[in-house]
Design brief:
- The complex is a heterodimer of chains A (204) and B (192).
- With 204 residues, chain A is an all-alpha fold.
- Chain A is 58% helix and 0% strand.
- The two termini of chain A are 27 Å apart.
- By secondary structure, chain B is mostly helical.
- Classes of the chains: A mainly alpha (204), B mainly alpha (192).
- At the A-B interface, helix 4, helix 7 and helix 8 of A face helix 4 of B.
Chain lengths: 204, 192
């Protein structure tokens, strides 16, 4: 189960509100490669993982992604403080504001609400870990794109932290894939699905 | 926007929270399998801050981070009475709350934001070592680091919860006030 700690994993202190930047960054909240997709992916893949190390890694990284979700929400919350109507009207943020005011709603920058279709849980160790590797790279690219479009150093600071975390997660998933392959038949990794066939009574 | 150099976009922090993001090319040979170099330096800093002394290689790093942040350099950092290898004080404190003998940090001066920053730093180092241990559970070095960090974390959490308020819902010290909902939430500008 989960415990909540009343702190951010990395501090966010944004002095200058800017709804246009918020409109861009919200993709990391509710977009296809955002933190909500990542946490749902990892936390749901872990149930079918026979290897306890890999299941533990998915639990820990999935929990950390929930913490990152909170950081992104904090960034958007602070970017949309103290706004007047003239700050919003005529900007891309106006279309978000009309439906959600200043509420934090998981949606992409293009206005597509979060969808579980972004998340793959295939129930096969190799397929799932490869999906996770790709997901971390896609998240890293999204952060790169955000850094290209944003100027404020207060905003870039936590974004750079989050980008680095994606790279570290990628390394960890590579380790998990290697650990898994070490336990499989070196001549044929796909001889059986360790998440399914072993549970059919073939081995304990 | 097209003429940004690499460093402007992806390089070192522009002056905020300088202690967090290290130069990615810095290489730490002692535990470099899979740990990011700044994760390792963060771990070293947390251990060294807690024990109030540092090995020479890490000392330079610690000093420069204090200078960059403008905070005073702790006066007892260059202790001559500590073991150069295990980074533990030569004097065991019998009343250390976690019993491991590590010297207590005297930075708990009631400044809640500073304490919280230290907790965030230790927790981040812990996060790194936990992910590392998930992949390499047989690493004695990593487990040792994990326990050092945990010890430091418990000390900081006690100090914070005594002076500033609960971090988890089960950490409410007061029997007369429900402090869990009284301080600003972590996503607010005033809480950071």
């Amino acid at each position: 189960m989960w415990t909540y700690e009343k702190k951010l994993q990395y501090p966010v202190k944004i002095t200058n509100p800017d709804p246009k930047t918020a409109q861009i960054i919200i993709s990391q909240l509710g977009g296809a490669d955002g933190e909500l997709a990542a946490s749902m992916r990892y936390l749901h893949q872990r149930y079918a993982m026979p290897n306890k190390q890999v299941a533990g890694l998915l639990t820990d990284i999935g929990t950390e992604e929930l913490a990152h979700l909170e950081i992104i929400a904090a960034i958007i919350h602070q970017l949309t403080r103290n706004l007047k109507e003239e700050d919003i009207a005529g900007t891309p943020f106006a279309t978000y504001f009309v439906d959600h005011t200043l509420g934090i709603y998981p949606i992409s920058a293009a206005g597509v609400p979060f969808d579980m279709k972004y998340v793959g849980v295939k129930g096969d160790v190799i397929a799932d870990l490869n999906e996770d590797l790709a997901a971390e790279q896609k998240a890293r690219v999204t952060y790169d794109n955000i850094l290209r479009l944003v100027d404020d150093p207060d905003v870039k600071d936590p974004i750079k932290f989050l980008r680095e975390r994606e790279l570290v997660h990628y390394q960890r998933f590579s380790d998990a894939l290697r650990v898994t392959q070490d336990t499989l038949n070196a001549k044929n990794f796909y001889a059986f699905n360790p998440a399914f066939d072993r549970r059919n009574g073939k081995q304990g | 926007m097209n003429n940004r150099s690499y460093n402007d976009t992806w390089g070192a922090s522009h002056g905020h929270r300088n202690g967090w993001l290290e130069d990615a090319s810095r290489h730490n040979p002692s535990m470099n399998r899979g740990l990011s170099s700044w994760g390792q330096s963060r771990i070293n800093r947390s251990i060294n801050n807690g024990n109030r002394h540092s090995h020479s290689a890490y000392e330079r790093e610690d000093m420069s981070s204090y200078r960059r942040r403008g905070t005073p350099v702790p006066s007892n950092t260059r202790s001559g009475s500590s073991c150069p290898l295990c980074s533990r004080s030569a004097v065991r404190e019998e009343n250390s709350p976690c019993g491991c003998g590590c010297r207590q940090s005297n930075q708990g001066n009631g400044d809640c934001q500073k304490l919280m920053e230290q907790i965030q730093a230790v927790d981040f180092a812990l996060c790194e070592v936990i992910l590392y241990l998930d992949a390499y559970p047989d690493s004695c070095e990593a487990l040792d680091t994990y326990h050092k960090l945990l010890c430091r974390r418990r000390t900081l959490q006690e100090q914070y919860e005594e002076a500033c308020g609960p971090i988890t819902a089960t950490g409410n010290r007061s029997t007369t006030r429900w402090d869990w909902v009284s301080k600003p939430n972590p996503w607010e500008y005033t809480a950071n």
